[in-house]
Amino acid sequence: xxxxxxxxxxxxxxxxxxxxxxxxxxxxxxxxxxxxxxxxxxxxxxxxxxxxxxxxxxxxxxxxxxxxxxxxxxxxxxxxxxxxxx
Length: 86
Fold this sequence. Notes:
two-stranded parallel sheet; single chain; 4 helices; globular; mainly alpha
């Protein structure tokens, strides 16, 4: 439980520092990758404040890359952090 809480706190600040999404800016494909990778931190931030987890104005390529990297980051969060080596 402590690991999850610590992850949420660190992610919150990482999203804030590295990937704050401006609701009035138009974003292209590269930002879709970045925003998708930071989906979980920005989702947490959106629950706690007025941050958004996906841009309001974006290109088609942004949307495609956002979906790919959002799914990838969610799968990594759910299944990638609990590997034990014997």
